[in-house]
Design a protein that fits this description.
mainly alpha, two-stranded antiparallel sheet
């Protein structure tokens, strides 16, 4: 069945709540370990059809945020979802209280019990109303992002479509595009500030009702951080400042010289090559078809995976009016089918998102028939991002199909981008720690904090007087800050692991790197992030020294391939 024909029916959450009340009661009354284990299996069979319908609704809403039907469906789930989530967590509590817990721990992955114990701390009947309000505020942000209609050079663009002009070889075009984008955000400043201010206060109130000092600890529990804490993350961020920021500063000086610029403004930052960055050849359809053929050639496993996605039309890739910004991979459990959402706009972003989300989708495909517990199909989010960011490197041998004779440029730009991304990702993370540790800050104070962090993490940027950017408000472009608090350092941790895959590819060849990638990915979510790395023979990126080694190897590659960027 193709995606467009998949039937949708609103999940009767009230009825499902009663089903989970029954599951909980039966778990509490289970007479044997076998009976308790069977109830965990029944939980998966019960939850998966509901999750499929909710995923369909969410995907179709982000494809067209102006569609009234799916907007109403998402509003329903935002309102009724927290109560259902509490019933599922009640079932988890019954599992943890089972007299057969010792036997269950032998039959199912230990990380499952660790994670549901954390989950039980994140919700209670006392906060259901606030959770509904939090969900609605997230929807307000998504709708606002999707509403952008910006006039530029005789066209009307949404935020994704405008991005192509931000990489234009002509400096004035780039500056104009950033200015037009900045004007949109500045015109809607009151709305963006209101939504975020209410989100911060709402999340803080939820945390305090649940017994936490502030939202930071609750945010870590929501993210499933089961093998490291904020102190480990702080050490990692400082490692990035010490090891990566100086390298990127030197790279930006080389970039300015390469472009022949008298100074270096933030709107010059995206353009790495004189004459402009390489863009995918041909049409959006050509990019898609090249991507399909790439995965078909890569291995028998990836061929099976991509044939399923292609035949079932499990993609929505092109930027259009009313579409949510960004890209993601979702999963339709009843069909054992991943789904990739993107916003193709004619830049290298199209290739990056296809390879990145393809990594997520492959991991979901691999887990679909091998995982007994749905909670163990995928690891926590930093673990999932290893799937995607490593895949970006593993696609390097196939970039000629997208870029022709400019593939070497694309490879060098991608590698340089992995290094320059790390400081930005850490900046996003530290900003959120500051905000949630000081929830009463005004919008102006939050902007001042972001501007100060710019100087710490990205001192090469000069925002001149461009609206919105010069105001210190550019953090409002980052979807995750609104929708998924503390989900961003995950990309940095995963990028550090992906650089290990790059290093292996350089030292021992593509097949060795792909084999190690599969050794990691085949584990699904059956261990913690650090446990998965250890079993796959990969280093903990939060250990001192591991970041320095991969960063300098990447830097040496870029130095050796400077001519590719000319």
């Amino acid at each position: 069945m193709i995606f467009q024909e998949m039937p949708y029916e609103r999940v009767d959450l009230a009825a499902l709540c009663k089903v989970y009340e029954d599951l909980k009661a039966r778990m509490e009354g289970a007479k044997t370990a076998e009976e308790a284990a069977a109830l965990l299996d029944e939980h998966t069979r019960t939850y998966e059809p509901a999750s499929t319908m909710m995923s369909l609704s969410s995907i179709r809403h982000t494809i067209d945020t102006e569609d009234p039907f799916y907007t109403a469906e998402e509003e329903f789930y935002a309102q009724e979802g927290p109560a259902f989530g509490e019933k599922v967590t009640d079932f988890y509590r019954a599992v943890l209280a089972s007299p057969f817990l010792k036997e269950l721990r032998k039959e199912f992955p230990p990380v499952f019990f660790q994670n549901i114990q954390m989950d039980a701390k994140t919700i209670s009947p006392a906060v259901l109303g606030e959770l509904e309000e939090e969900n609605k505020l997230v929807m307000d942000y998504q709708k606002l992002q999707g509403s952008a209609q910006i006039e530029f050079q005789g066209k009307v663009c949404n935020l994704s479509q405008l991005a192509v002009y931000k990489e234009d070889p002509q400096r004035e075009v780039r500056k104009g595009a950033y200015t037009a984008e900045g004007n949109f955000y500045r015109e809607h400043k009151a709305e963006y500030d209101r939504i975020y201010d209410e989100l911060v206060k709402k999340r803080t109130a939820i945390a305090k009702k649940l017994g936490f000092q502030n939202f930071v600890e609750l945010g870590y529990l929501r993210m499933g951080r089961n093998c490291y804490d904020k102190k480990d993350v702080a050490v990692f961020r400082e490692e990035v400042v010490r090891e990566i920021v100086p390298i990127v500063c030197e790279m930006k000086k080389e970039q300015q010289k390469r472009l022949g610029l008298p100074d270096f403004k933030f709107y010059d930052d995206p353009v790495v090559c004189r004459g402009g960055n390489p863009a995918p050849q041909g049409t959006f359809e050509d990019t898609y078809r090249t991507g399909i053929e790439m995965y078909r050639k890569m291995s028998p496993l990836t061929k099976d995976f991509i044939n399923k996605m292609d035949s079932m039309h499990l993609f929505d890739l092109i930027a259009k009016k009313g579409k949510m910004t960004g890209g993601y991979c979702s999963y339709l459990a009843s069909y054992k089918a991943p789904f990739i959402f993107a916003n193709f706009n004619g830049t290298s972003h199209d290739v990056e998102v296809f390879t990145h989300e393809g990594g997520h989708a492959l991991a979901a495909f691999m887990a679909s028939d091998k995982t007994r517990l749905m909670e163990c199909a995928m690891p926590t989010l930093e673990g999932c991002e290893v799937h995607s960011m490593s895949m970006e490197f593993l696609c390097w041998p196939y970039l000629e199909g997208f870029y022709g004779d400019k593939a070497d440029k694309a490879r060098a730009i991608h590698l340089g981008g992995t290094l320059s991304f790390l400081p930005y990702g850490c900046q996003v993370d530290e900003f959120q720690h500051i905000v949630y540790e000081n929830p009463d800050m005004t919008p102006e104070e939050r902007n001042a904090q972001w501007a100060a962090l710019d100087k710490k993490y990205r001192p090469w940027l000069d925002f001149e007087s461009v609206p919105f950017y010069a105001d210190g408000a550019a953090w409002q472009r980052q979807i995750h800050i609104y929708t998924d608090p503390f989900y961003y350092i995950d990309y940095c941790l995963a990028q550090s692991v992906a650089l290990q895959i790059f290093r292996l590819m350089e030292e021992k060849g593509w097949q060795a790197a792909f084999d190690q990638y599969l050794a990691y990915t085949r584990q699904g979510g059956n261990d913690t992030f650090l446990g998965l790395l250890q079993k796959a023979g990969l280093e903990n990126p939060m250990e001192k020294g591991s970041l320095k080694n991969v960063a300098w190897e990447a830097r040496e590659y870029l130095t050796a391939h400077q001519k590719d960027l000319d």
